[in-house]
Write a sequence for this structure.
């Protein structure tokens, strides 16, 4: 919880507070886990070096390892199932559990070996990465991360009602920091009730509001909800139940003053991501970062393109919108359910039947999330992305100066009165 905490107001910097997780005291700043490899190792390590928490994402980990470490997991999987590429039934397209574990161990271990400072590195683990075998692939990812020494695991994209049972026999189960992302008190209550047998409370709860980037825990009525209200409601219930679980507020926290406002509502820390998308350490290509800088508020939408069934916030100009790529499940297939099915396959097959003359039909209602996230063509973003242009300098050519993760982190940490500190202006090329 918070220690040595003054009364929060706009003149109080976020650095006046600390997040306590067990015996550890941390700067109350958590960088969210953006996939695929948007929250890079470098970004997570900067957060840890500065005393906060940085997340790796476990989205498409074999693909990330191929790109970063020269492995060939994607090619190997494609070769095994190449015979099935033109078959709409993907039941046979199964991941090799040993490869999943090896990829996760390699990526996590590489980060943990390089970690410096007093902070922590966590893994954002998504239940909705069903991978044609939801329970087995989730277990493989979790156990590999624990084996590799991850400091903490944030359970995301799902209620994770059976997840703790998958790892409760692991020797690090009681020691690793475990948290869950929820968007309502009811979701947290269900998680706690269903996992009561594990005799293991979460060490923290990330409360993600309606302004967050990517997949949302809300429906089409997302605008009717408010993060501060949800945080206060959950804090009041936890206090009434005498459960001392720190809350981490996420979604739309754009300044240090916003963060202190969340502390006033009962949070112990904030999770932030949008402002880090335009840093050097972020994994997005630099040209994509410029699209984020240039975005106007009207350029951001919440749509239902994701095969997961969750609404998803992204830039309207995302190349994935309407793109009718052939389903790449033999190579990827991260969103296949336990029966080898993905809603994008249905949408693509429907459009192909209606327009057989087109090799790449327009598919408007769903997107091949695996392919487009891998290629950085799905430009998911937070609702406050349109404000990014106010955080940096515009160059003579109209582009914007990229920031360092340290600059953004310290601005959250020390700013007051709603101010945003601009970086030192780079010399003209």
């Amino acid at each position: 919880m918070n220690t040595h905490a003054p009364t929060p107001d706009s003149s109080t910097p976020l650095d006046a507070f600390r997040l306590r997780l067990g015996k550890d005291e941390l700067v109350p700043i958590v960088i969210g886990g953006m996939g695929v490899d948007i929250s890079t190792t470098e970004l997570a390590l900067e957060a840890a070096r500065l005393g906060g928490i940085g997340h790796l994402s476990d989205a498409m980990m074999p693909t990330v390892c191929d790109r970063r470490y020269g492995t060939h997991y994607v090619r190997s999987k494609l070769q095994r199932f190449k015979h099935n590429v033109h078959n709409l039934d993907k039941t046979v397209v199964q991941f090799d559990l040993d490869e999943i574990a090896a990829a996760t161990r390699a990526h996590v271990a590489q980060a943990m070996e390089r970690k410096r400072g007093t902070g922590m590195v966590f893994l954002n683990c998504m239940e909705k990465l069903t991978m044609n075998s939801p329970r087995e692939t989730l277990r493989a990812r979790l156990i590999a991360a624990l084996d590799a020494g991850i400091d903490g695991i944030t359970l995301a994209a799902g209620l994770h009602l059976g997840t703790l049972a998958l790892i409760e026999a692991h020797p690090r189960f009681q020691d690793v920091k475990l948290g869950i992302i929820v968007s309502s008190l009811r979701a947290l209550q269900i998680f706690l009730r269903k996992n009561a047998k594990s005799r293991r409370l979460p060490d923290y709860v990330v409360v993600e509001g309606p302004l967050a980037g990517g997949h949302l825990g809300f429906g089409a009525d997302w605008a009717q909800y408010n993060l501060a209200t949800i945080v206060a409601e959950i804090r009041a219930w936890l206090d009434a139940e005498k459960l001392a679980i720190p809350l981490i507020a996420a979604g739309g926290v754009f300044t240090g003053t916003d963060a202190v406002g969340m502390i006033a509502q009962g949070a112990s820390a904030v999770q932030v991501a949008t402002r880090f998308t335009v840093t050097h350490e972020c994994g997005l290509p630099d040209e994509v970062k410029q699209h984020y800088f240039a975005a106007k508020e009207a350029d951001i939408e919440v749509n239902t393109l994701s095969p997961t069934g969750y609404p998803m916030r992204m830039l309207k100009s995302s190349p994935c919108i309407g793109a009718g790529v052939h389903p790449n499940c033999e190579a990827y297939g991260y969103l296949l359910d336990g029966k080898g099915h993905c809603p994008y396959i249905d949408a693509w097959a429907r459009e192909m039947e209606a327009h057989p003359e087109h090799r790449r039909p327009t598919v408007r209602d769903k997107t091949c999330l695996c392919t487009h996230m891998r290629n950085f063509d799905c430009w998911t973003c937070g609702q406050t992305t349109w404000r990014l242009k106010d955080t940096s300098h515009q160059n003579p050519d109209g582009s914007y100066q990229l920031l360092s993760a340290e600059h953004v982190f310290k601005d959250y940490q020390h700013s007051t009165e709603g101010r945003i500190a601009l970086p030192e202006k780079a010399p003209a090329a």
About this structure: The domain at 16-284+402-414 is CATH 3.20.20.70 (TIM Barrel). The mean pLDDT is 96. The radius of gyration is 21 Å.
